[in-house]
């Protein structure tokens, strides 16, 4: 499946390819070439909203595909360089493999531990390929998982956006009471004009909303600030998903200041800010404010940063509400044991 994804990552060159080779690419349409259509459709759907050019996830998906292609071609040095660029684009700024494998294993304050764990696994496969077994197949699997995590195709399929116009999907969501107490706008590119309708809907349905999904909606800092008064006034809101947008670290100051007021976001326990422009870690006051809203809950989106010498690490546990991995505190030994078990499941 990963092979098909990589072949499908060059839709622009299809016209130059030999006819037989082109037919070979198109045949597995429902699996591998869907990724090619994802890249093409994202170019059509996005970039027309508030932000210029394509959203950050589009660039990251292309880098993953290109890296896998280089590995298949035996170009380890080029693949290593591309992996370094991908790490830096995702906030893992160190270029040292030791830092990638060990320094970031604690996931301290990271906004997206899943991505970092997959990047660490990719680094191991590229730098230390195993002579036995299907090493390439394992790497293809990791690339699929990382692509799935960083791209909106699951939201597009669920919302039917692949076949319907975004405005039709938006209108359908904003009709009647929220289904399962969730306002799910994931994958629908929003404009400033759309935000007026969304704000009105949130205010009129505030007593029925537990979750707001705004993943991959082209949100910018300015747009989120426009939505913030309506969002922070939702009394039952527990989960706010903002990943895959155009948000920058500048918005963290506004969110942190808002969270300092216990009357705003009174029930929220989880805010997902991963896969944005340059938000790679969360400030401690932000996390402390979330913790105060759920003192009996041991899980946080990430963990507070420890002082040197403290042998506590962050591992992952599945959140039933948001479906993402949350950081919890465990001693060093349990961290190592869990990490080994997690890697064996990935294989």
Can you give a write-up of this model?
It contains 15 helices and six strands. It has 347 residues and is an alpha/beta fold. The chain has two domains: 2-151, no CATH class; 158-305, Ribonuclease Inhibitor (Leucine-rich repeat, LRR (right-handed beta-alpha superhelix), Alpha-Beta Horseshoe), CATH 3.80.10. The strands form two sheets. Strands 1-2-3-4 form a four-stranded parallel sheet, with no helix packed on it. Strands 5-6 form a two-stranded antiparallel ribbon. Strand 3 (239-241), helix 13 and strand 4 form a beta-alpha-beta unit. The chain is globular. Residues 1-36, 45-51 and 302-347 have low confidence and may be disordered.
Quick description:
The chain is α/β, with parallel strands linked by helices and 347 residues long. The protein is built from 15 helices and 6 strands. This is Leucine rich repeat containing 75A.
């Amino acid at each position: 499946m990963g092979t098909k994804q990589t072949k499908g990552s060059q839709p622009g060159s299809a016209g130059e390819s030999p006819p037989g080779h082109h037919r070979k690419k198109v045949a597995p349409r429902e699996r591998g070439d869907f990724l090619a259509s994802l890249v093409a459709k994202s170019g059509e759907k996005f970039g027309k909203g508030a932000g210029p050019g394509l959203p950050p996830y589009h660039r990251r998906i292309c880098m993953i595909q290109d890296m896998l292609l280089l590995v298949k071609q035996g170009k380890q040095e080029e693949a290593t360089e591309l992996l370094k660029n991908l790490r830096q684009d995702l906030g893992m700024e160190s270029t040292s493999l030791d830092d990638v494998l060990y320094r970031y294993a604690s996931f301290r304050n990271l906004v997206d531990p899943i991505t970092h764990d997959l990047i660490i696994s990719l680094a191991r496969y590229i730098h230390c390929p195993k002579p036995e077994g299907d090493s390439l197949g394992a790497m293809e699997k990791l690339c699929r998982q990382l692509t799935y995590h960083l791209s909106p195709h699951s939201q597009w399929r669920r919302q039917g956006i692949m076949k319907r116009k975004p405005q039709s999907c938006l209108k359908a969501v904003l009709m009647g009471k929220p289904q399962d107490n969730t306002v799910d706008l994931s994958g629908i590119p929003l404009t400033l004009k759309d935000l007026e309708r969304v704000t009105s809907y949130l205010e009129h349905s505030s007593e029925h909303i537990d979750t707001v999904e705004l993943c991959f909606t082209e949100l910018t800092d300015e747009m989120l600030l426009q939505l913030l008064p309506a969002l922070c006034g939702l009394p039952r809101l527990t989960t706010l998903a903002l990943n895959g947008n155009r948000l920058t670290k500048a918005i963290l100051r506004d969110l942190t200041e808002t969270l300092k007021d216990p009357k705003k976001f009174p029930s929220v326990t989880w805010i997902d800010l991963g896969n944005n422009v340059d938000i790679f870690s969360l400030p401690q006051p932000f996390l402390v404010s979330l913790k105060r809203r759920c003192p009996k809950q041991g899980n946080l989106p990430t963990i507070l940063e420890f002082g040197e010498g403290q042998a506590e690490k962050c591992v992952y546990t599945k959140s039933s509400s948001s479906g993402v991995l949350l950081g919890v505190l465990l001693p060093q030994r349990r961290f190592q044991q869990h990490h080994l078990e997690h890697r064996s499941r990935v294989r």
